[in-house]
Design a protein that fits this description.
9 strands; alpha+beta; about 190 residues
Length: about 190
């Protein structure tokens, strides 16, 4: 059973490694195709050298900001600027453990966990992830939770997955609804 639990994490790490190798290879090919500058009259400054040395395949794979288009043709901006969205740093730390990165949509309450350019989880009032990323989902949902410990929420997730029955709690104006639909864990809170 432990092998099945670690499988998504291992697959995510392997996907991340392969993508980093692909980006590094692409960078090498681009560098090789550039003509060598001979006797350039403009010296390369130390700042330029440092910025080149500091970049990594992960920087290209996970830039600070980029735009994405959903299947319905809507384009939206994604950002990892955690100086603006400070809580995002904690979510990003969780995502990195699974070979992914955390992004948010500026001026929105929707956030995403992405591997490469594929959204594997959403974090919002309606959060979701494929059952394959169950452990990531549990970590994300309990990161700031005042209601559940990781163990309590993991037990709830397992119960809903195994039974196929939704979990519903309504308390006055707040509540939660949790279900598995088409292999996707969906969690609503209000």
């Amino acid at each position: 059973m432990e092998d099945e639990t670690n499988k998504p994490k291992a697959e995510a790490e392997e996907n991340k490694r392969k993508e980093e190798e692909r980006v590094a290879q692409k960078r090498k090919e681009e560098q090789a195709s550039k003509p060598k500058e001979m006797n350039s009259s403009v010296p390369v400054t130390k700042e330029k050298e440092e910025s080149v040395d500091e970049s990594s395949p992960e920087d290209e794979l996970y830039p600070m900001e980029f735009t994405m288009t959903d299947p319905n043709g809507h384009t939206f901006k994604l950002s990892r600027d955690f100086s603006i969205y400070k809580i995002g740093k904690g979510y990003d730390d969780i995502a990195r453990r699974y070979g992914a990165r955390f992004y948010y949509t500026p001026n929105s309450d929707v956030s995403y966990v992405i591997i490469g350019r594929k959204i594997i989880a959403t974090v919002s009032l309606v959060s979701a992830a494929n059952v394959e990323y169950k452990d990531l989902f549990i970590d994300l949902m309990t990161f700031q939770s005042k209601q559940y410990t990781r163990e309590e929420f993991a037990a709830l997730v397992d119960t809903v997955i195994q039974s196929g029955e939704p979990y519903i709690v309504e308390e006055g104006d707040s509540g939660e609804f949790f279900k598995v639909e088409n292999g996707t864990i969906v969690y609503h809170s209000w």
